[in-house]
Amino acid sequence: MAKKKTTTKATAVKPMTKSEVYKAVAEKTGLTRKQVVEVLDATTGIMVKEVKKTGSFNFIGLMKMTLVKKPAVKGGKLVRNPFTGEMVKQKPKPASKTVKVRPMKALKDQL
After folding, report:
1. Rounded CA separation 58/107 (Å)
2. Which pLDDT tens digit goes with each residue over 53-86?
């Protein structure tokens, strides 16, 4: 009895590129691509300004962006390496800021 080979490649679905998003929005709204770029650049600028100023930004009820400030970590403390189990010195890390993006109810309901 001969075995039948099945060769199925899982095609990875790639997210849209920036230019594909601009093109799709331009087609949907009837605006020119240049106008779409200007609108989205302005929106991005407003988001950044508000997150810096207030620490959070709600994007049209779809997602909430919040600024998370992580404090600096002093080095030298002994911590357990979870992979090997040995005790190693912790490396110092500077303070940093990052943005956390959470979906809101309107986005969850659309999915």
Report:
1. 12
2. 999 999 988 999 999 999 998 888 888 989 998 9
- 46 within domain boundaries: yes
Q: How many domains does the chain have?
A: 2
60, 100: one domain: yes
Residue 30, CB-side half-sphere exposure with 13 Å CA sphere: 0
**Whole-number CA gyration radius for the chain:** 23
Residue 96 lies in a domain: yes
Look at the pTM and tell me if it is higher than 0.70. no
Instruction: Describe the strand order of the beta sheet including 96-103 as a list of residue ranges.
Output: 56-59, 63-70, 96-103
